[in-house]
Specification:
Blueprint lengths: L2 H6 L1 H5 L5 H16 L4 H5 E4 L3 E7 L2 E2 L8 E4 L5 E7 L3 E11 L5 E12 L2 H6 L4 H17 L4 H6 L1 H16 L4 E12 L2 H43 L1 H18 L10 H9 L1
Antiparallel strand pairs: 1-4, 2-3, 2-5, 6-7, 7-8
Helix pairs in contact: 6-8, 9-10
Pfam family, one: Band_7
Subcellular location: Membrane
Organism: Patiria miniata
């Protein structure tokens, strides 16, 4: 028996053993088994796969020895019943939940939960349908957790919300012998009006940032022009060289005749005055 079985089944171990009626039924069941050989072997010999365990009840009482399997196990006719529990990791989708966030925004959220049976005996004795119970608990816990979050937190902190949801589900399902391994939020759907408002806000933010970037560019360009003007002002010949470079670039880009009303020598004389 697993270590957790003593904690879960301590009450059953303190109860009295089977009564006289049960003992007589067991004796009669053995007699039926012997007198119906070999046909009774088809009913009394069962098998479970590597990923399964069998919980046996004899006259309604849990049979000592813990879960049976994997492999073959024996049951008595007429008085023994058994339940087979799958130990593999199972998953289910949490239906979309309409949740009112902390900042009064209605969102629709769905998730997926991965879990497995850790204690087969507890999953049979302590809950009627462990999968259905886990599904309902996951939906309730999802609403409770997201109700304490703002819309921005729901959209940006999915990993933290998933971890908190997994932790709370794991603690709540531990008495059922269930281990919640992972919880993932699949989708967060917003109302159409909220989507339009968020899109308009994002567009306005992008436009404001573009204007700031353009203003910073103008400021840097003005500063560079000022520095260039200061350098040219220190040397009059630099202005004449810049003038000649401009003529060269104009003639290279546009093959046309350019007429200057004033010769460069006159401009140079005026600059000296």
């Amino acid at each position: 028996m697993a270590p957790g079985d003593n904690r879960v089944h301590g009450v059953q171990e303190e109860e009295e053993g089977p009564g006289c009626c049960t003992t007589v039924l067991v004796f009669c069941s053995y007699i039926v088994f012997v007198f119906t050989l070999p046909f009774s072997l088809c009913y009394c010999i069962k098998t479970v796969a590597e990923y399964e365990r069998a919980i046996i009840f004899r006259a309604g009482r849990l049979l000592p020895g813990g879960p049976k399997g994997p492999g073959l196990f024996f049951i008595l006719p007429c008085i023994d019943e058994f339940r087979v529990v799958d130990l593999r990791t199972l998953s289910f989708d949490v239906p979309p939940q309409e949740i009112l966030s902390k900042d009064s925004v209605t969102v629709t959220v769905d998730a997926v939960v991965y879990f497995r049976v850790q204690d087969p005996t507890a999953s049979v004795l302590n809950v009627e349908n462990y999968k259905r119970a886990t599904e309902l608990l996951a939906a309730t816990t999802l609403r409770n957790i997201l109700g304490t979050k703002t819309l921005a937190e729901v959209l940006s902190h999915r990993d933290e919300i998933s971890a908190g949801l997994q932790s709370q589900l794991d603690v709540a399902t531990d008495p059922w012998g269930i281990k919640v391994e992972r919880v993932e939020i699949k989708d967060v759907r917003l109302p159409i009006q909220m989507q339009r408002a968020m899109a308009a806000e994002a567009e306005a933010s992008r436009e404001a940032r573009a204007k700031v970037i353009a203003a910073e560019g103008e400021q840097n360009a003005s500063r560079a022009l000022k520095e260039a003007a200061d350098i040219i002002a220190e040397s009059p010949n630099a202005l004449q060289l810049r003038y000649l470079q401009t003529l060269n670039s104009i003639s290279a880009e546009k093959n046309s005749t350019i007429i200057f009303p004033l010769p460069i020598d006159i401009l140079a004389g005026m600059m000296k005055k």
